[in-house]
Amino acid sequence: xxxxxxxxxxxxxxxxxxxxxxxxxxxxxxxxxxxxxxxxxxxxxxxxxxxxxxxxxxxxxxxxxxxxxxxxxxxxxxxxxxxxxxxxxxxxxxxxxxxxxxxxxxxxxxxxxxxxxxxxxxxxxxxxxxxxxxxxxxxxxxxxxxxxxxxxxxxxxxxxxxxxxxxxxxxxxxxxxxxxxxxxxxxxxxxxxxxxxxxxxxxxxxxxxxxxxxxxxxxxxxxxxxxxxxxxxxxxxxxxxxxxxxxxxxxxxxx
Length: 255
Ligand SMILES: NC(=O)c1ccc[n+]([C@@H]2O[C@H](COP(=O)([O-])OP(=O)(O)OC[C@H]3O[C@@H](n4cnc5c(N)ncnc54)[C@H](O)[C@@H]3O)[C@@H](O)[C@H]2O)c1
Description:
By secondary structure, the protein is α/β, with parallel strands linked by helices.
């Protein structure tokens, strides 16, 4: 029996996940589809990976669509939300997962570095929430999950814009949780190190990647371990969670 109050079923719901072509977003989209949600796989210029995910979901009997959008741009966000709802219905669950990281000594950080990070990792959450919340308010129901980072709590040398953006995500989550409660539940997840493309030498030194394992559990999480927290927060089991920051982090932060 599927009593919505006692299961993690997302049957009948439409979930939009940003950054869903890879990593944590991909694992979240897949898990949500397995839990019964119709899923919008929002991605930035990663059509092949996004379509492969959609095909995987559809092959196992689910519903999904891929939409290309830069979530740091207001016009893209407006069209993403409209297109997404037109095909799969009103957005019941929004997961803001898209993000970038950059390691740089603070004194070498350019205006462009700062703006790019803040626009992508924090501005996108603002834009997506502003676009999706009106529909949730109208229906008197909805869930938003924002992916922050343990660095938004801890801070880290040479990651100032990222740490600031992720701390901003936590502040934004708490303000919106208060403004839109009780109908809409808004929470954040602040993962520790996760084995994805983000933890790669494309944007971080090998030394820092090695140091990431200096946590009590001494390992990286699999993306699925973060997706599990997202599924819990999306489900009715988490109906008393409001403005919280859950920490699947291997012990990096113990508040
Ligand atoms: N990997 C980690 O250790 C870790 C730890 C804590 C938090 N996070 C956060 O988790 C989230 C997902 O990261 P991940 O680890 O899965 O890495 P990832 O690089 O696999 O995923 C990030 C996704 O965001 C997309 N993206 C980037 N800029 C975008 C834009 N402007 N518009 C739309 N999409 C955009 C990328 O294409 C990519 O698919 C990020 O917000 C990241 O900051 C990651």
